[in-house]
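chain and backbone:
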Amino acid sequence: MSLLAVQNFLARIFTDENLRREFANAPEEIGRKNNLTEKEIAELIGILPDEINCFADSLRRKRLREVEKLLPFTKKALDEEFEKQFREFAAQFTPDSIKKHLEDAVRFAEFLQTKEIAPVWVQDLAKFEQAKLEFRGYGKRFVFKIFNYNVKEICYRNEMTQTEYKKKKNFAVWLKIGKREFIF
């Protein structure tokens, strides 16, 4: 196997918790399935699992911190639950585009919209921030989203301690004409 192929396998081990667990339990079998030679498998077995897990955790923490920056309102609303949900999300998704942090944040916001999370308006908050990221980060010219709650009211309150907001259908529009952006 080429050095690049081994590096790619290592990258997958560091970012894919299931593959890391499978390799720890059956290194020869998983190594062969991934076209590693016996020598390469032996070298990887020589790397202590604790070191691999420590490095993988540091990568996940870095991903988390970047996503927190891109989803600040959702982070603020979920507080400690944000990290718990991100760990679940990160175990099943690894970004592969050149805009990894953006892709991570957009897909995590999608993930949150499928979860039953309290307070229920957090799903709308995630949808709002996802739309904003897609508009700006992916260069979309038009984005339209419908919400169950008044997201602007929730976002721009000083404290997100209120857990009950009245359901009130509303929408947001992001529009780019030339170089000018409009948000309604």
Residues 71-183 form one domain. The chain has a mean pLDDT of 88. Strands lie at 142-147, 170-177, 180-183. The chain is about 60% helix and 10% strand.
